[in-house]
Amino acid sequence: MSGCKKAANWKSKMEITATYLADAAKAPVTVESCRFHFPLLRRQVNGKPLVYLDNAATSQKPQIVIDAIMRYYHEENSNIHRGVHYLSTKATEAYEEARIKVQNFINARSMQEVIYVRGTTEAINLVAATYGRMHVTAGDEVVISAMEHHSNIVPWQLLCEEKNAQLRVIPMNDAGELLLDEYERLLSDKTKIVAVTHISNALGTINPVKQMIASAHRRGIPVLVDGAQAVPHIKVDMQDLDCDFYAFSSHKMFGPTGVGVLFGKRELLEKMPPYQGGGDMIKSVTFEKTIYNDLPYRFEAGTPNIEGGIGLGAAIDYMNGMDLNAVAAYERELLAYATVRLKEIPGLTIIGAAKEKASVISFVLDGIHPHDIGTILDYEGIAIRTGHHCAQPVMKRFGIPATARASFAFYNTKEEVDVLVKGIYKVKEVLG
User: Fold this and answer.
1) Which end of the chain has less Cβ packing within 10 Å, N or C?
2) To the nearest whole number, what is the mean pLDDT of the chain?
3) Which of 4, 160, 243, 390 is labelled catalytic?
C-alpha cells in the first residue's frame, strides 16, 4: 500500500516530536511507515504485540493529532470566541481553521454548513429535535433502514412517539443488503425524512446512498446520512451526494473523542430552531427576547470541545497527506484476504456478505459465545469488538444475540489477519 506520505512536513515545537519526525521522514512509504505514526500500535498487551482490530469502534491516533492537542494545552489554552486577549485569539483561530479544513474535506459549500457536535449521535439527535419537530406531525412517516445503529433509530422513535407519527423500516436480504425496491415503495407523501447509514457498523455493507438520496429528492423528501463508518474509509463529497444532512465522528477517523460534525444544507439550517440555549448561540439576550446567532454558531451553545476540534483538524491534515484511493484499494485487499482466511475456519460463519463492503467482518463461531471469543483473543493481544454493536435489530434479523467483529484500518496488515486466524483456532482449542 502506497497511500501514506512521509511525515517530513509535520511541525512541532516539542523536542520529542522533532526527533520522532526526523526518524519518520527517513522511513519508506509503506504500511509499516504509516504504523510508525501511531504510537499505541507499538505497545504490547498481555506480553504480545498488540493487534488492534477494533477500528469501527474507535481508531488509533497519529502523533500529529496527539501533538495538536498537547500544543493547545501547552501554548494556547483559553476559551474561544469571547476573548480579545492573545491566547483566546490564537485558540479561536486554530478552532475555526479546523472547521474550514472539515468544510474542504467533505466539500461543503460553506463553513456555515459545518456544525461542531459531540459526535454522530448528537448530530442525529440535533436534526430529529429541530428539523424533525418542525416538519413531522401526526400521521407522518420517518423512513430508516434495518441496519441502523441505535443512534439512528432511537432519536426517530422518540420523535414519532411525540408526534404520533410512524417509523418505517427498509428491509434487507440475507447478504445484508437493503432491498431498494421496498425502499421505493416506502416513500410517499407521508414521508417527511429518510435517515440511513452510509456504511453499516455491524455488517460493513456500503449502501448506495447517492441513489437513495436521488430517489427521495424526486419526491421532495430530505435525507440524513449517518457517515460515521464511511468517512474513515471512502471519500465523501457533500455536493456530489447532495444529501441534506450528513453526520460523522472524529474518533473513528483518527481524531480525538468527544467531537464530531453535522453537515447541513444552509437553506435548511437557517430555518431550524436552536437545539440548545446558552452562551455563543446568541447575538443578544433580554428578558423579553433573545436574538440567535448566525450559522454555524446558532447550534453550538456553551464552551465546546476546543482541543477536540483542533485535533480533528490535525486528523484531516493527516488524511489529506494520504492517497485516499490507494488507501481504499489496500483496505479492500485486506478485507478480501481476511474474508478468505476466516472462511477456512471450521464452524465460523461470517454475518454480512454484501457485494459492496467496507473493512468490517462480523462472525459467529459454533457453540462459542462472542464474548468468550473476545476474551481469549485478548489474552493473545488481539483487540476485537463483541456484542450487538448497538445494532440489536440487525442481530434479530439474523437470529443471533451477538457477533464477534474485526474491523480494519489502513495500518492493519495481512500478518495481523494471520494472527487473528491463529487466535480463533486457539479459541476453538480452549472452548471447542
Assistant:
1) C
2) 93
3) 390
